[in-house]
Every structure is written in C-alpha cells, then in structure tokens.
Amino acid sequence: MKTKPRQSQRLRKLKAFTLVETMMSITILAVVFGSSILCYIQSCRRAEWSGYSLAGQALCVRQMEQFRAAIWDTQSVPINDQTTNIPGTVITILELPITGTNAVWATNYATVTTLNVTNSSAVIKMLTVNTVWPWNGKTFTNTLVTYRAPDQ
How far apart are CA 65 and CA 23, in angstroms? Predict the structure, then answer.
C-alpha cells in the first residue's frame, strides 16, 4: 500500500508548475498586455493628430474659397480686383469638437502673388494659404497653393 501514495505524490509533482515557470508566464503576459496598451495609446494619438490635420486643411480650403470667390475682372474699366481685400492673417478656432474651454486656435496666413507670364501679356495670381495649428507642444502647418487667372 505504500507504493501507491508515493506514485501519486510523484505524479502530482510532475504535473505542477514550478515558480520559475509561473514567473516567466506572468512576465510574458505583462509584456503582451503592455505592448497592446501602448499600441492602443499610440493609435489614439495618431487619430487625434489626423483630426487636427483635417481641421487645419478645412481652414485652408475655407480661406482659399474666399479667394476663389473674389471678383477679378480685367475686362472692366477700371479693373475690378477684390482679391486684395481678403485679410492676410486670420486667427480662428479649429473645427474640432469643443466642450468648455478646450478650443484650439489656428492661424491662417494668406498671400497673393501676381505672376507675369513671359512672352505674353497674361497675368495670373498664385494664392497661398498656410494654416498653423498646435498639437502636443509642437506647431504644424497645412499649405494650400493654387493659381488663378482673371474671370475664373
């Protein structure tokens, strides 16, 4: 009868985990969960940056549409050029969800450059809009450039 309890004790010892095996499995589990949480946090940061970038691009497009809508008629006397009436610097709030006082301010810098086409009397304008916006202590810039001819 003494042989059976010894065999069962031996089998129990062989089936159990040692302390080293348990600590290694806990370490592997901690690394897997830690990296999963880190990846989730990083993806949230990238999604937030994308939202800010798209809001900055929307401000660029809005300012550019004001330039495109301005009248520039070289056939009338006197020439009607309202592209110079658009403000060069506009400070506004980014189009992001706002609750309370978390508004994010951005600045649009717009420039109009008149270009003379060589070997022709044609004149075109280059419209440039830069939107500068902050994120995580850094500043980022969205730039939009287009050309415009009279009566377009």
Answer: 63
Q: Is the pLDDT of residue 6 over 80?
A: no
What is the rounded radius of gyration, in angstroms, for the C-alpha atoms of the chain?
33
Peptide bond into 97 cis (omega under 30): no
Tokens 């798209």: give the residue.
54
Contact predicate 144/61, CB 8 Å: yes
The span from the CA of 4 to the CA of 2, in Å, is 6
Q: What's the longest Cα–Cα distance across the chain?
A: 121
Contact 115, 33 (CB under 8 A): no
Predicted TM-score (pTM) of this structure: 0.74
CB 149 within 8 A of CB 116: no
